[in-house]
Amino acid sequence: MNFFIPKKFLIWTIVSECFSRIAIIFALFQIPVLVKDFSVERISFFLGAIFLFALFHFFSQKLSLSLGGAAKKKIQAYFQNRFLNMLPIRDRAQRGMPLQELSLHYIKTADLMEPWYSRFLPSAYLAATLPCIILGVMFFIDKLTFMILSLTGILLPLFLFLIGKIAKKKSEEQWQSFSKLRAFFLESLQGYKTIKIFKKVKERERDLEIAETEFGKKTLAVLKVAFLSALAQEWIGSLSIALIAVSLALRLMNGSMEFDGAFLALLIAPEFYRPIRHFGTAFHVAINAKTAWNSSNNGEWRMENGEYFQFSILNSQLKLPAQKSLIYISGPAGCGKTRMVLEMLGHIEPQNTQTKLLYDGDKSNIAWMPQNPVWFKGTLLENLCPVEQRDFLEVKSALENVNLGHFTSRLNEQVLEYANNFSGGEKRRLALARIILLNRPVWILDEPFAGLDKINVEMIEKFLEQESKTKSILCISHNAETLARAKMVFDFSIF
Asked: Which end of the chain is more exposed for a tag (fewer CB within 10 A), N or C?
């Protein structure tokens, strides 16, 4: 992100704003003097300082906007070059809509990054420099006020840091929810004809409403944290100024301090907290921008047990945890989800693709369920246990887990060609039962919910969630309701 910073604009923005604050402090110095000596000369100094403050502040605002605009142009050029060089020309023609979705994602990211440069960066530097300048001035005006400002100046960033950690988490959840909603909507438009043919428009509308409601809840959670941050800033700042005012008033009453110094200290004190407040406000913009940037370049999602999988467009890696995880992969048909798995397993030759699945463990520990499972001539039991025999109780338990407990009476039945004596949903669940009986620590499932009704989908979802406590499960799925309920989703369509 620092690569795109127009350094000249940034330096002049900071210098202009520092000069504007110095001018306003000089103007505040003139107020106690005007009380004693209301002359044309003093009024000229005061008005001149106000004019310089307005002039430098105007230039700093213009420069900050130019800073954001210049950075945005660099980011857009960067995304444009990466977009054009990402895929071969033949793949662009084949993939179509996913690339349109990717371009929209880059545009959205560039828009979110502009305020990061125009607002957050200048406010971060100013929050570090201006309070130090004011503390230096206050040291010569009043030592006690200097100490109060120093202590409260530490507390305010501390509170902002604690609230910022919560805000970062909420913002990441909101962005993931937005990505799922966008991908789901695009997929619905892409397959609208199919949805219309099978008369599933009402169901699709309901699923879209569910995804929209989830995104609304995540957005509201981010706004709540933003309001909490603003409340903390106002409360701490107001309390600190009130504490300074009380200390100054008590010393004025005792006669231990002159009015000029007390009045000047009270006028300058709010200027100490102003840049910190601006930084706190801009911090929420920075969180949104950072989340969007990470989703476009390097994303990392941590699991409850500390394991994680990582995706990086620059490093082209999707890392599968060795144990205890349930990761869903979504995305439009043809975007390379299955190919990525087959390349990792060594079933096909690796291509010059942008995304690769990495697994550091022994590949013999992986149980792979393809979209079209292989069925061979023999009994159902022989198809369920092709590697090694299992006892009846293990087979029965596996069938019950996929809601096929009644198939125990058909274990000796001969499997016809392409398993045509079973329905599509039954074949899908029997293939999953075969994966269960293999008893491997890592499962990779390609479309395990295809052809299943809602009851069986929910049942298998719960089973996979339970198994993920001891196994690492990677599940490729297009089921919108499942993806909406999933805790960990990697969305291929935004890349």
From this structure: N
CA pseudo-torsion sign 69, 74, 76, 77: positive
SS3 per-residue string spanning 418-484: HHCCCCHHHHHHHHHHHHHHHCCCEEEEECCCCCCCHHHHHHHHHHHHHHCCCCEEEEECCCHHHHH
> Can you give the CATH number for the domain in which 324 is found?
3.40.50.300
Separation of alpha carbons 85 and 404, rounded Å: 49
- DSSP code of residue 74: H
Six token digits for residue 358? 């990495």
**Stated pTM of the model:** 0.49
- Token pair for 192: 């609208």
Q: How many CB atoms lie within 10 A of CB 493?
A: 22
What CATH number is given to the structural domain containing 110?
Answer: 1.20.1560.10
Regarding whether 222 and 202 lie in a shared domain, the answer is yes
For strands 414-415 and 366-369, give the pairing: unpaired
Residue 443 sits in the same domain as residue 486? yes
Model confidence pLDDT, tens digit, residues 306-353:
333 333 333 445 555 555 678 888 777 777 778 888 877 777 766 655
User: Does 470 lie in the same domain as 422?
Assistant: yes
The crossing angle, in degrees rounded to 10, of helices 121-141 and 40-86 is 150
Residues 327 and 233 grouped into a single domain: no
pLDDT single digits (tens) 186-243: 777 777 777 788 788 888 888 888 888 888 888 888 778 877 777 877 788 888 888 8
Together in a domain, 408 and 265: no
Token couple for 115: 């305020």
206 and 151 in a single domain? The answer is yes
Q: Return the ∠ at Cα 274 (arms to 270 and 275), rounded to 5°.
A: 140
Q: DSSP secondary-structure letter at 117?
A: I
Q: Which amino acid is at 201?
A: V
Q: What total of structural domains would you count in the chain?
A: 2
The domain in which residue 56 lies consists of: 2-296
Q: Which long-range contacts (CB under 8 A, 24 or more apart) does 102-106 make?
A: 102/493, 102/494, 102/495, 104/182, 105/179, 105/182, 105/295, 105/296, 105/494, 106/76, 106/79, 106/80, 106/296
3-state secondary structure of 219: helix
**322 and 201 share a domain?**
no
Q: Is residue 303 part of a domain?
A: no
Q: Does one domain contain both 352 and 480?
A: yes
Q: Which of 296, 329, 352 is the last residue of a domain?
A: 296
